[in-house]
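Supplementary Methods. Inverse-folding protocol.

Structures were first reduced to a discrete structure-token string of length 413. This string, shown here, constituted the complete conditioning input.
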């Protein structure tokens, strides 16, 4: 087993060892530092195409894994590769060996852990069908520290789509196939079941997802390895890429939402509170005090739409609260375009003038639209929320906000 760890990240190595005291005989290998990579040389040697838009961290991640695949192919023996944010179950070595022994001799790749903020697609078996699963990353994170003390019994299914390279085993033949497919690293996009749009190649796992259906690739369900998948502290995914700072968003008093309901003439109080990133915490208990529900879900817009649909949230529900100051534009567009809530309350910090998106790999990003611009595009007016300082109120076209003629009387357009 090989552990990928940057030479400058001794703290992450110490944390890995503290979280995985049961693992013995792991060989630490130096990961490639993408900040030091010579992109011109990589292009000249056919490792990377000139139009590849990888962050420094993504380049380092790709080169780290490519190096291990080369070693597996040349050494003629399977390798198990582990990233340094992994937490492995107590019986990982025993259970992974059992699974590998039960696979056909021509197996090429086995995914022992995957990202929980994206769907996973695998085949249930002969005569059955593919299965696409979604996960609750927040719930997994709450208990990840105890995973190393748990024994897990798993099954291997044919892998079709997924994200993450936290922990996997690869055969020499599988390693050769991945090197042949992935070089040169290049732009591409891949359709994932469960997502409404194609995913652009922003990292090596995006490329792997394209080739897994053509390989003897498998995934362990349930997983034998977990990762918090925290982009704020990742040295592989995020290195060289500015990340949103941790933010504390003050939550309005429940009475503020009750007042919003009253002012727009709402009677049934169908409302939803959503946290759509990992940088803020949405206290759903406060939502429940006024009789409505909160969700802690992934950033992906299609997963957001599915979560609302599965919970019976129909178009035109009364009020939406977004518990983050930096809501991803695709998620917001899904909410405004597909579900058409009557009113939306968002932190005012998100309403900024157009500003360039963070530059990546020395390129200038496109302008980021302000909340007012996004809202106007979907037929919503925008104004300060008079019942909650620091928040904006978006109103769907046809709904007005006027001072009531007398207490408790709302005026609708």
């Amino acid at each position: 087993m090989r552990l990928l760890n940057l030479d400058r990240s001794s703290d992450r190595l110490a944390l890995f060892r503290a979280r995985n005291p049961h693992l013995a005989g792991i060989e630490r290998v130096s990961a490639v530092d993408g900040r030091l990579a010579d992109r011109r040389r990589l292009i000249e040697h056919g490792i990377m195409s000139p139009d590849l838009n990888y962050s420094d961290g993504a380049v380092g991640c790709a080169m780290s894994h490519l190096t291990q695949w080369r070693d597996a192919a040349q050494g003629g023996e399977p390798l198990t590769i582990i990233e340094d944010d992994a937490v492995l179950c107590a019986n990982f070595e025993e259970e992974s060996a059992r699974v590998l022994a039960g696979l056909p001799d021509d197996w090429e790749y086995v995914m022992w852990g995957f990202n929980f903020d994206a769907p996973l697609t695998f085949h249930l078996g002969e005569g059955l069908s593919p299965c696409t699963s979604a996960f609750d990353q927040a719930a997994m994170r709450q208990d990840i520290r105890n995973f190393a003390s748990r024994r897990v019994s798993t099954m291997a299914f044919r892998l079709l789509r997924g994200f993450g390279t936290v922990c996997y085993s690869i055969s020499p033949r599988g390693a050769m196939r991945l090197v042949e497919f992935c070089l040169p690293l290049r732009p591409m996009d891949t359709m994932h079941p469960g997502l409404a749009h194609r995913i652009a190649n922003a990292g090596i796992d995006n490329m792997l997802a394209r080739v897994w259906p053509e390989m003897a690739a498998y995934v362990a369900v349930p997983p034998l390895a977990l990762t918090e998948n925290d982009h704020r502290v990742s040295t592989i995914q995020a290195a060289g890429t500015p990340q949103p700072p941790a933010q504390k968003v003050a939550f309005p008093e429940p009475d503020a939402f009750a007042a919003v309901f009253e002012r727009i003439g709402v009677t049934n109080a169908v409302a939803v509170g959503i946290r759509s990133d990992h940088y803020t915490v949405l206290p759903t208990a406060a939502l429940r005090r006024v009789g409505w529900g909160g969700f802690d879900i992934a950033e992906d817009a299609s997963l957001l739409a599915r979560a609302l649909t599965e919970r019976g949230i129909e178009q035109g529900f009364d009020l939406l609260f977004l518990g983050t100051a930096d809501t991803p534009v695709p998620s917001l567009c899904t909410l405004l375009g597909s579900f058409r809530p009557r009113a939306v309350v968002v932190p005012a910090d998100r309403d900024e003038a157009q500003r360039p998106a963070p530059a990546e790999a020395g390129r200038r990003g496109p302008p980021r639209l302000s909340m007012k611009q996004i809202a106007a595009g979907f037929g919503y007016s925008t104004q300060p929320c008079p019942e909650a300082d620091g928040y904006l109120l978006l109103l769907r076209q046809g709904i007005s906000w006027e001072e009531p003629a007398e207490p408790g009387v709302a005026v609708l357009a």
